Amino acid sequence: MKRSLAITLAFAAFAVSAIAQDAKPTANPVSGAVKQQLERRSKIMLAAADLMPADKYSFKPTPEQMTYGHLILHTATANGKVCSAITGATAPTIEVKDTDPKDKLVQVFKESFDFCSTQLANVDDSKLGEEVSLFGSKASRARALIELPIDWADHYSAQAMYLRLNGILPPTAQPKK
Q: Most buried among 49, 126, 172, 173, using CB within 10 Å?
């Protein structure tokens, strides 16, 4: 019994040591993770925007909910506000309406992710504790960075629901090719 415990502990110590040696320290774990999420989320959210037919951009599941076009515009606006809060840049002015054609809305949507990508390119974790203005309130830069992937997950889940209600599989549910 003691020998088997000793062998188990030895293997556990070896495994932990091997994992520790393989793990590469990340200099900027928070901002780096957000940048990775930006790359992934922008692809699937833009793909979801492309999948919805143009005539369905006026679709809303219930009278109380926003249209798909409004969801796209809302997300583009949120991207601009949060990414500008993180860096102090001025958010881009969006001059489209949620009733504009799909191509205009998708272009603004893409530009909002490009804006975030540009803004986050030089962000690191050294100033996470600094105060920024986020949606009219004071927050830490860390909170603003964490807010982005939360917003993307929330908005993508809404996109996926709207697509499914129209008989369309969202990008993350598509069969692998």
A: 49
